[in-house]
Amino acid sequence: MLVIRHDLYRRAQQCLVQVHQRITGPIASAQEDPLPRSVLAICPQLEPHLAQLLERLCSLDLGVRDTLFRQPEGEMMAILDVLEPVVV
After folding, report:
1. Contact, 67 vs 26, CB < 8 A?
2. Omega of the bond leading into 85 within 30 degrees of 0 (cis)
3. For residue range 60-72, what is the model confidence (pLDDT) as tens digits?
4. CA dihedral in degrees (48, 86, 23, 57; nearest 10)?
5. CB-based contact 27:68 (threshold 8 Å)
6. 86 has which bridge partners?
7. What is the pLDDT of residues 13-57, one digit of tens each?
8. How confident is the model over 7-17, as pLDDT tens digits?
9. Rounded Cα distance, 49 and 56, in Å
């Protein structure tokens, strides 16, 4: 079980999960992924520090996101790197 100790990272993870749960339909590639657009759309309503973190997470170059989309293990490691410090 992954436990995130840093409150800002925990709230970012919760926000991403909640937005992802509201998105339906299959996604064939990172370019079609509506999650970054949806998250960026709500950022103006969020606390500035949380919005800034989420904006950085969502602003990856499309080529980078497409590579991460095709290799989910690497993507998971990148997400874990962003969400550290963690306790496993």
Report:
1. no
2. yes
3. 777 766 776 676 6
4. 50
5. no
6. 4
7. 888 888 888 887 777 766 677 888 888 899 999 999 999 988 888
8. 888 888 888 88
9. 11
DSSP codes joined into one string, the chain:
--EE-SHHHHHHHHHHHHHHHT--S---SGGG-HHHHHHHHHGGGS-HHHHHHHHHHH---HHHHHHHHH-HHHHHHHHHHHT-SEE-
CA gap 58, 52 in Å, rounded? 10
Q: Which two tokens stand for residue 40?
A: 């960026």
Amino acid (1-letter code) at residue 83: L
